[in-house]
Amino acid sequence: MPDELEALNREQKEDHHDAAYLSPRLTFGVSLIRLNSQFLHEMYGIILRTKAPSSAPCDLAKKAIGDSLLKNQANSLIDLELQFIVGREQELMAFESKLAQIKLDQEPGLFHVYGTAGVGKSTFLRLCRQKAQQYGAVYLQLDSRDFVHSEKGIGAALLSQIGFTGESEYDPIQRFCEHLAQQSGERVIVLAIDTYEEMQDMENWLRDRFIPTAPSGLLLLSAGRYPLRGSWLWSPVWRERLHQLPLQQLNRKDCLNYLNLCGITDELQIEQIWRRTNGHPLALSLAAAANNLAESLVSFEGGDWFEQLAALWLQEVRDRELIYFIESASIMRVFDQERLSAVMKQDVPSYFFDRLIALSFVRRTERGWQLHDLMRKSMNVRLKERMPKRYRELTTRCAEYYAKAILQSKDRSDIEWEVSELLSYVDIDVLRALSYEDDYSYYWEAVTETTLRDAIAYAKWRETSTQPVSGYEVDPETGARFRIEYSREMVRYNAAPLDLEALYGLEPLSIKLLRGPNDQACGLAICIPIHAGTLAWLEKDPLSSPYLSTLTETERDMLAAPREQPAGWFIRSLDFADILNPQARTAGIRLIYSYLCRGGLTICTPYDSEIGRKSYTAFGFLPVEGASHRNHDGRTLTPTYALDTRNGKLVAFLTQLFRRSGIELDISGCLPEVPPRYEPNLIGILSEREYEVAKEVAAGYSNAEVATRLLISESTVKKHLKSIFMKLDIHNRTQLTAKLIAKP
After folding, report:
1. Cα 18 from Cα 356, distance rounded (Å)
2. Are 668 and 656 in contact (CB under 8 A)?
3. Cα-flanking dihedrals φ and ψ of residue 572, to 5°?
4. Strands in 638-686 per DSSP E
5. Are strands 521-530 and 511-515 parallel, antiparallel or unpaired?
6. pTM
7. What burial class does residue 74 get, using C-beta atoms within 10 Å of its C-beta: 0-12 exposed, 13-18 middle, 19+ buried?
């Protein structure tokens, strides 16, 4: 037996240095090693706590040899496992800092890490063990599930950690503290407690009984699903001694490192796994195993690999009725009590809502609460498969909720978030592939006189930094791939240079900078409001003029709106320093979202590309007949796209967009009925018929539409308009609207 273990240990060490070690075949071995290391570690602890009969010295000797072998094997496997842990550098630095503080002050302290199931709390404790041992500290660890939650039970568990297995006539806690103080000297003592959420019934005892009698250099290290609350925070003494740290998901770089360690180097596979797991450590591990074991070496029960993760999370939900609320909340990306009640069409009791938001996989956000991404997706899949009718009803209600909020909004210039939430229910694979959910680390800012120089600097950088772009994006739901391909010339002309200073002088709101996490400029958008002050410029611009040339005189006059109420927007350019960056690109998609539902005309004419055609038509834009042009480079025929949501057309747009996804929205009566207040004193100036014509024109109707509505000829409408303009000393429809509509 010893020879076999030694050979296995030597073979594993040799494999660890072998370049072929991380092959897909052996990655499964890594997974087994992880399970075995935990099993052997737990088994070693069980053996250590077993009391051997004093009459069996031979058995005791054999046991000691077995203990030693198992301990060596466990340590070898644990050391091997540590090679696959990525990230957590900042968290370890915080732990090390706490160790140093305890050693200096010789006062007890607490270090608590928390996070949802599978985020790596137990793994972090193993890293802390390694760090503590390097620091020369004494490290002991308990799992709250391994002992009876009583003073006697925890006392016995603590004594077993220092190798004492006999009965004690003394208080076990006192015996433990005295022995530990004698053995540790001035070294820091780290007592780690895993699954701390199960220790709530012992918290008062820990705080009031154990810690005050513990050796002075004790650091209580705990890991659980929830942060410490209550008396830990009420007392200034405990607040000073407590350091709490949430364990977050891994970032993109750490995920890449981990997948490379697991032998996964294909960029498309890595992107798929990153998008599906969002950096959740356990999900990442399961996905890597599923990717490498595609040849049926392992089957994940329940279909999708992250259903197991959802089942793990649901272990903390002991009420079937609460699961019903979780399923409903999973349909919404962000929920609160009011929204959840609206979607479920029933009042959600406060006590139930409190229980829901107290779950470890629910987090507070700026706009409400969210289920963990993976939990939400898993519950969605589960609900869709098992109760498709209920899933469809809840989805439709969610879409209607946000559609009504948008349509009834008094200021649609600030509805980007609501539009983004609404369109998340549209079943469009290319938009899912190109966007990255729930990431707001990149944001747009309108330039000011101060930041205009940043926009100019970015534009100059772009002129000399036009590199070709090639990559894929994948729809995380269907697996459909979309090629993003831009030649150097396409990049250059898609961000065709402009005189930004002149444009800023014309309309400052036209220029927006994309800022990244460190506030660096990493994108530029030119979105020009269409109103009386910009119309002449747009008619001369080589990219917007082809569209304007297709309009009739009446249609053109309707664009000469007041600056405060533009008729629409011309998205002339949308450029990113790195278009393959999903977070930056998602910010660009949200910017387009913000214009779609404002009730105006949105026009764009990006340099022609396959991904551009798919994207803009997916948004609901339509190519404008007769507006194609070659004005980007003089050679490439480029379409112009337009989306018109003026004068009540927004309801029709949303209805049609969702109908493509099989969802029938009931929003026809959602537009607020706010009739305009007309100036009554104009009645004495205009004739009764002229006043009727003026009101129809001010409402946005064309001459032909006015004629139909008033049952007169179009020539009569023109005659009345000519008389109206003369009487009011004005020259166009925009001035007529300004004269006719009463000021609030």
Report:
1. 49
2. no
3. -80, -35
4. 641-644
5. antiparallel
6. 0.64
7. buried
3-state secondary structure of 642: strand
Query: Could you give the CA distance from residue 300 to residue 428 in angstroms, rounded to a whole number?
Result: 28
- How do residues 355-378 score in pLDDT, each as one tens digit? 999 888 888 887 899 888 778 888
Interatomic CA distance for residues 195 and 249, integer angstroms: 18
> Which helix or strand (DSSP H or E) is residue 142 part of?
strand 138-143
> What are the pLDDT digits (tens) for 419-477?
888 988 988 888 888 887 666 788 899 999 999 999 999 999 988 888 899 988 888 77
Coil/strand/helix, residue 322: helix
Residue 642 has phi, psi (to 5 degrees) of: -140, 150
SS3 assignment, position 385: helix
Range with the poorest average pLDDT among 66-80, 311-325, 578-592: 66-80
DSSP state of 195: S
CA dihedral angle for residue 385, residue 388, residue 393, residue 397, rounded to 10 degrees: 20
Q: Which residue has the tokens 């609901």?
A: 620
- Number of residues assigned to the chain: 744
CB 507 within 8 A of CB 528: yes
Q: What is the pLDDT of residue 221?
A: 94
Q: Which long-range contacts (CB under 8 A, 24 or more apart) does 678-686 make?
A: 678/740, 678/741, 678/742, 679/739, 679/740, 679/741, 679/742, 680/742, 682/728, 682/739, 682/740, 685/727, 685/728, 686/724, 686/727, 686/728
**For residue range 232-243, what is the model confidence (pLDDT) as tens digits?**
888 888 888 899
Q: Can you tell me the distance from the alpha carbon of 512 to that of 446, in angstroms, rounded to the nearest whole number?
A: 4
Q: Output the DSSP codes for 609-638.
A: -HHHHHHHHHHT-EEPTT--B-TTTSSS-B
Identify the three-state secondary structure at position 482: strand
Identify the burial level of 635 via C-beta atoms within 10 angstroms of its C-beta, where 0-12 means exposed, 13-18 middle and 19 or more buried: exposed
pLDDT band at 536 (very low <50, low <70, confident <90, very high): very high
3-state secondary structure of 370: strand
CA 342, CA 348: separation in Å to the nearest integer? 9
**Strands 601-604 and 622-623, sheet pairing:** unpaired
Could you give the CA distance from residue 454 to residue 577 in angstroms, rounded to a whole number? 14
